[in-house]
Amino acid sequence: VDSDTLVANNSRVIVRFQSKHILLVVAIVFAALHMNADQNGWSEEARKRKADYIYMEASRQNAVDNEDAYYELMNRAYELDSTNSDVGFYVGYYKLAMSNKDSVLFHQGYNMMEKHFSTSPEDFYGSYLFGNVNEKLGMRKKALQVWAVLDSLFMDKTEIGMKYAESLAQSGDSANIKRAIDVYNRIEKAEGKNMTISTGKIRTHFIVRDTSAIINELNELLKSSPTSAEYNVFAGDI
Asked: Average pLDDT in the 119-140 region?
């Protein structure tokens, strides 16, 4: 622009603008930056960047099995950036593991893990771990919700489908038991007949004492490989 003049004097660059409106915008931006700085003088962006560096170092410490340093670094990263649910998830997991009989610490840890699952269910490892934690805690209803979400996101992963089907069957609900068989059938269609899937189906039929369905499943398994000693012994035991 003809009316703007740039003057360079060594490392100093002075920009003169004729527009008062531009000067006002610049003043507002500087004021905002000042307001976003914390007591250490760091902006929000700087805190998040620092938290990322600490998280990377925590991952390195975890790789060499230095758990104490890992936990302390993860805590510090979360203090700097509590919006990072990835970091919060693992801090929560450690709080949960160390809670023993401390109900406050337990709920803090569980809530941090649940928050991450709610915002990032596509994090396969984290969500899988959260599902297992709920199972171990006997929170079957929540575990079922986790496996249902994961199964909808990762229908190609057999281990998730199996977890989901098992959780459906354990609920005891007749509609869920039927749904469990449907999930097993879906997996079987993709994977082929095998004893792991047949065992899951038979266990599910046992819950409702459906002897006819159990015998039919055994016959189908034997038909898939009549000379298999493993299948024949399994069928004989059932």
From this structure: 95
